[in-house]
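From the pipeline queue, job 12 of 40. The input is one protein chain; the requested action is below.

Action: predict structure.
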Amino acid sequence: QAQLVESGGGLVQAGGSLRLSCAASGRTLPSKIMAWFRQAPGKDRKFVAGISRIGGNAWYEDSVKGRFTISRDNAENMMYLQMNNLKPDDTGVYYCNYEEGTGWGPWGQGTQVTVSS
């Protein structure tokens, strides 16, 4: 199983932007549906955005539509989440993962995103 590593988080003011990156540690990006998830403080981890195997299709949780863009570069073994017009409710730890059977692969450490008002 591929172990994914997230990066790119940080502290940003409301209205700002961040770009998160996801890399497969030591191997190629899984040729599977992939997604970003977010875990807000004290809450369960939730789906944010997903992308098809070759990146032709993407889908989003309603609250991020029009603000976030998921993409992947299979040649570079990377997946990204461009986040614009960030809001305090976007605060949380962001995780990337890939579809595995009826669930998801192993979870990484995530990257912290904090949006101040």
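Job complete. The two ends are 39 Å apart (CA to CA).
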